[in-house]
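Input structure tokens:
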């Protein structure tokens, strides 16, 4: 006979949720940092997301939806909630929300006297004096790098692919970070369907049914057979990417039946044609 497991206390569950949230955010942050995505943009989206989620949950539960209730359920102040309700998360995109390195690269592309130039790396006064005349990287960092030292900024630009060293030892802009951006987008987009499958089960729980992340229903709009096959192809591509990630994390192939992915297609019937009366002679 199996011993009955003692239900965890509220404090233990809160600690478990905190730990799981921290671990999930570490994984998301790893993707964003690899792509040069700044904390400012993440913080802005997070605040808007909390307000939007609070409005949805309060409405589902039949509670009043106002600044005070949203503030009480999110931890934001009433003033913050009011401001977030007045603004659009996507409309407020600004370079100041990007990472420091990305902001510096933008200034490098657009601000005089740096735009369009490779920059001299300052090492010793003699080397700078002997170098071909041109803008100094140190000067770019001093004007647009905030409190980041030039050596650290140079290392981050090279690491992220935003810049590269030329044959003559100068630093020049690069587009090598596009691959990191593309891979980060693919990773986040692959994860979204699973989160969207789990979240409703938490908001609208069904007693006795365990939460599962293996069921997801997505509506595919199509008017032609080619459009349908194209949509199904995108699903299969995402599924393949996700399964490859599972294999890598597990260190090998999964056992048969451990994960089942299925796609069901249901089409709506065509509208009924109105019967036309025969024309009277």
């Amino acid at each position: 006979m199996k011993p009955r497991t003692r239900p965890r206390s509220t404090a233990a569950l809160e600690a478990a949720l905190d730990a799981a949230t921290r671990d999930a955010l570490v994984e998301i942050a790893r993707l964003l940092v690899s792509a040069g995505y700044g904390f400012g943009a993440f913080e802005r989206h997070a605040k808007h997301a909390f307000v939007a989620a609070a409005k949805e949950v309060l409405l589902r539960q039949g509670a009043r939806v106002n600044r005070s209730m949203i503030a009480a359920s999110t931890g934001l102040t009433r003033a913050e909630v009011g401001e977030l309700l007045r603004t659009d998360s996507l409309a407020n995109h600004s370079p100041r929300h990007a990472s420091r390195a990305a902001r510096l690269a933008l200034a490098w592309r657009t601000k005089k006297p740096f735009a369009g130039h490779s920059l001299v790396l300052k090492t010793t006064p003699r080397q700078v004096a002997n170098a071909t005349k041109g803008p100094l990287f140190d000067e770019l960092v001093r004007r647009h790098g905030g409190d980041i030292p030039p050596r650290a900024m140079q290392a981050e630009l090279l690491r992220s692919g935003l810049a590269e060293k030329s044959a003559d030892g100068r630093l020049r802009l690069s587009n090598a970070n596009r691959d990191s951006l593309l891979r980060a987008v693919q990773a986040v987009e692959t994860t979204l369907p699973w989160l969207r499958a789990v979240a409703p089960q938490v908001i609208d729980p069904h007693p006795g049914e365990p939460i599962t992340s293996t069921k997801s229903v997505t509506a595919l709009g199509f008017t032609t057979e080619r459009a349908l096959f194209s949509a199904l192809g995108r699903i299969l591509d995402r599924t393949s990417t996700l399964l490859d990630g599972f294999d890598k994390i597990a260190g090998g192939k999964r056992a048969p039946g451990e994960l089942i992915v299925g796609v069901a297609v249901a089409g709506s019937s065509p509208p009924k044609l109105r019967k036309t009366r025969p024309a009277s002679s």
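The longest strand covers residues 163-165. The chain has three domains: 14-95, 99-176, 192-250.
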